[in-house]
Amino acid sequence: MSFSEIRYSQVWEDEAILRGALNIMPNDVVLSITSGGCNALALLLMKPRRLICLDISPAQNALLSLKMAAIQHCSYQAYLAIMGVTAGERHEIYSELRPNLSLEARQFFDSHKADIDAGLIHIGRLERFMAGFRQDPLVSAITPYLRTLTGIKSLDAQRTVVSQITDENFKKVFKKYFSQENISRLGRDPAQFAFVVSTDVGEHFWQCFLRAMNETQFSTNFYMQYFLLGGYENLDYGPLLLRRESFDQLKRLCHRVELVTDSLENFSEDKRMLGITKVNLSNVFEYKSAASSQDLFFELSQRLPDNARMAFWNMLVDRAPQGIDSLVNLPPKANWRDRFCLYQSFKCYEVRR
Ligand SMILES: C[S@@+](CC[C@H](N)C(=O)[O-])C[C@H]1O[C@@H](n2cnc3c(N)ncnc32)[C@H](O)[C@@H]1O
Q1: Residue 200 sits in which domain range?
Q2: Domain count, the chain
Q3: pLDDT for res 1
Q4: pLDDT tens-digit map of 146-179
Q5: Which of 240, 279, 287, 334 is the most buried (most CB within 10 A)?
Q6: How far apart are CA 59 and CA 34, in angstroms?
Q7: Residue 182 within a domain
């Protein structure tokens, strides 16, 4: 799998669940998979002592590096512009930020000028794949109805509109677009499906979609709003890293972040793990065999101190530690339901010896 491109420019795993489960305290040292950077920064807002953002992909770390430079050195208006939330002179903003970037991030974005044009939240392979869905003529045709959902406050009234939109034609288009074949071609890498067995991927995502549309309030669900409308209706309910009230806090906290480009497997085996107390693993087990997932769970259980917590998602591949007594599965809370329509479960384990 190539790590030379940005695969995710946002994170689709629900930041609210992660923050609730990891329950970060001032003395915590957090390890988070970087990915699109949103959840790492949502955790940073909980003011841990240090935050290590780790990704095997230099492109993902370059993206977070630029997002953080924008937070540290831009006005809020310029930040929203370079992120792609509002219009603005993105190239000028980038030129001003450039001297503050790491060499790797500078080299990456100097050779990806089109990404600066597009705005940082829109440039991932997955986000471009979502944009392709919105361009389908049938989806474009229902966009005005989807937009009305942003003004509806009652879940019953929302369900009525949703039932009108999600007819057989829409279902057919949805399932075809989000089939394994099409996602592998345009949205994710085929290698990311290596451990997916006998699942009708289109049907799986369709059921997740119906759940999100019928059981979560669209007017405040920024995940579904971006997916279906390509932007956020009201930033007061948007991703934490984009909210006005977060901006000044993040400016003060960014110096606590360290970016590391390496695999979790290498990282977890050496002394850099020392002192880490909370871990966000995204859904990295999705791409690992059952045996190597168990090795990684075991390694983490050995390295982490008592009361440390680690959280992760499962999407199409069900992974969990097996027979490791020191890893205790925290009972799922009622609000551990993702607002986005990708994941089948979220899990959090605590180390207890
Ligand atoms: C696990 S992916 C999840 C994205 C999305 N949920 C999906 O399944 O398509 C998020 C990030 O994890 C990084 N990643 C995957 N496996 C990793 C590993 N073994 N070590 C470090 N980073 C890893 C990827 O580069 C990516 O940026």
Answers
A1: 129-237
A2: 1
A3: 62
A4: 999 999 999 999 999 999 999 999 999 999 999 9
A5: 279
A6: 10
A7: yes
